[in-house]
Design goal:
about 30% helix, single chain
């Protein structure tokens, strides 16, 4: 029970640090970074236009098939961040696997949290973001996250 609480606290801290600060990416509009066509091609299924996860916060955006996201369904989430939050996300945490990725942005790292899956955190210059894919086996999710991150980087 203590380990579950520790992991939950670590995830909450990481997410809080990740979303803190004002991103400089595309004026802070995560939905402007990918098109529905790009996400559809990456997921292998048609998705609707990206929508902010919270209507008043354009720093996060989700894409899902018509009818909305399903728990185990195919979907993509992009969360904008800051270089400072990116650096904080690299701090080792017990129970959370962090794997560097080369060739994507100035710095990139996969972060795998038990029960929450994997996200790809990327920094390029003064911009940072996370891409999370759902609905696939972990290795496939990582592959799609990398593909989408490379598309996002073309707009930075």
């Amino acid at each position: 029970m203590h380990q579950t609480h520790t992991i939950s606290l670590a995830v909450a801290t990481l997410l809080s640090a990740w979303s803190a600060g004002r991103p400089r990416t595309q004026g802070g509009d995560a939905c402007a970074l990918l098109t529905a066509a790009q996400v559809s091609a990456a997921l292998g299924t048609t998705v609707e236009a990206g929508k902010p996860l919270v209507a008043s916060n354009p720093k996060s955006c989700g894409w899902a098939p018509p009818g909305g996201p399903k728990i185990d369904g195919r979907k993509v989430i992009v969360q904008l961040s800051t270089p400072k939050s990116f650096d904080a996300s690299k701090t080792p945490m017990n129970g959370i696997e962090k794997t560097p990725l080369t060739g994507v942005g100035d710095d990139a790292i996969y972060i795998t949290t038990p029960g929450f899956g994997t996200g790809l955190n990327v920094r390029k210059g003064n911009s940072a973001f996370q891409v999370r894919v759902g609905g696939f086996k972990p290795d496939k999710e990582k592959e799609i996250e990398k593909t989408l991150a490379l598309e996002i980087l073309k707009k930075l």
